[in-house]
Design a protein that fits this description.
Length: 356
């Protein structure tokens, strides 16, 4: 029996609704497989936890997570209780950084039964590789002066190592796909980091002559995401550009509620973390209408990560058969609840089990 230990952190808002849904799906998948078992341990770390303990996780929180095979996170953030920069840097970004989850993989594609808001959407299927450890998300800077001259400075950090690592990962993924990598740049306006980014991209490209490459400024690239998303295969982007592009990717799919992501620790020292692209969605929390597909597709990425690609592909096929049958939550124009969509996915999985 292959046992995979997972630390579940539902977090805040709809994280508490979609993580249990996706966990149930994973348990169903494991039962179908027969030789696979997930062992989940839940951690209540969240903004409510902060109110009681004055921190997002206990002092030994990272040690407690370290020995798990993976971390399955919902979403973090409740500005009514804790400022976002405190809650996010105390939990989500802390884990990404300290567990060296330097690559963030965020796919977007046309899904069966899900209407893209693009009137003429061709069949796009792309992956954003987001540099996940540095870039514009730095702690270097400060707020200086008060009064009329008040100003804030935020420095960005681009190391050769971090930049190369993200790019190499993009080339690696592209080599198994349509063999195309697009670099998201802004070297026409940003004078140090982006010309550096471009030169690293040129160097890394030379090592992969079989992959075709191009470089697009992030502003034009954003427009192309809307006009011609089918032209892209793998896009490599800095931390902030990748963040924004991945919500745009979610948007052109039809909803931010279906987009998955994986924060990968590439050196194998620490667990990787799997979480949907969306946040805690305070506007719909408690209504039972959160789309569980972002979290369930994220579970598919976790299956892939643990070498269970066949199960992962089966899960994505089932998700699409369910969306194809019209089981959609309100964000996709449907009337179905979180539970109805989840139950339908579980029912379809069980049918495959009976057939197979
Ligand atoms: P959000 O993703 O939470 O919500 C944006 C919009 O998308 C809302 O209208 C929401 O209802 C909708 N939405 C999101 N997920 C959905 C789902 N599964 N089903 C249906 N609709 C869904 O982004 P926001 O409003 O900018 O942020 C809310 C909070 O979440 C903030 O505190 C923010 O910092 C945090 N956040 C956390 C993460 C994370 O933990 N990974 C990511 C993004 C935002
Ligand atoms: C994401 C989120 C986070 C990020 C926020 C909540 C800090 O938007 O995972 O995409 O910017 O990385
Ligand atoms: Mn984001």
């Amino acid at each position: 029996m292959k046992k995979i230990t997972i630390a579940n952190i539902p977090g805040d808002g709809i994280g508490k609704e979609v993580v249990p849904a996706a966990t149930e799906v994973l348990n169903t998948i494991a039962a179908i497989h027969g030789g696979l078992k997930f062992e989940f341990t839940e951690f209540p770390w969240s903004c409510e936890y902060y109110l009681e303990h004055n921190q997002m996780m206990p002092d030994d929180g990272m040690e407690r997570l370290q020995d798990f095979d993976g971390i399955f996170l919902g979403a973090v953030g409740n500005i009514k209780l804790v400022p976002d920069h405190v809650s996010l840097w105390g939990l989500l970004i802390k884990i990404r950084r300290e567990f060296e989850q330097v690559i963030n993989i965020r796919p977007a594609k046309v899904m069966k039964g899900v209407k893209s808001p693009l009137a003429n959407a061709k069949d796009f299927d792309l992956i954003i590789v987001r540099e996940n450890s540095e870039g514009e998300y730095s702690e270097i800077g400060g707020k200086i002066y008060r009064g009329e001259d008040e100003l804030a400075i935020q420095n960005a950090v681009f190391s050769r190592k971090g930049t190369e690592r993200a790019m190499q990962h993009a080339f690696h993924l592209a080599s198994k796909r349509k063999k195309r990598v697009t670099s998201a740049t802004k070297s026409n306006g940003i004078t140090y980091s982006m010309p550096f980014w471009d030169s690293v991209f040129e160097d890394v490209s030379k090592g992969h002559p079989e992959i075709s490459t191009d470089s697009q400024h992030i502003d034009a690239l954003s427009a192309f995401f809307v006009t011609h998303p089918e032209r892209f295969d793998v896009i490599v982007a800095s931390n902030l550009f990748g963040d924004i592009l991945s919500d745009l990717g979610a948007g052109i799919m039809g909803s931010i509620g279906i987009a998955p992501s994986a924060n990968i620790n590439v050196n194998g020292k620490y667990p990787s973390m799997f979480e949907p692209v969306h946040g805690s969605a305070p506007d719909i929390v408690g209504k039972g209408i959160a789309n569980p597909i972002g979290q369930i597709w994220t579970a598919k990425m976790m299956l892939d990560h643990f070498g269970e690609e066949e199960l992962g592909n089966t899960l994505l096929d089932v998700i699409e058969s369910v969306t194809g049958d019209g089981f959609l939550t309100a964000d996709l124009g449907g009337k179905h609840s979180t539970k109805e969509v989840t139950d339908e996915i579980i029912n379809e999985l069980k049918k495959i089990d009976k057939k197979g």
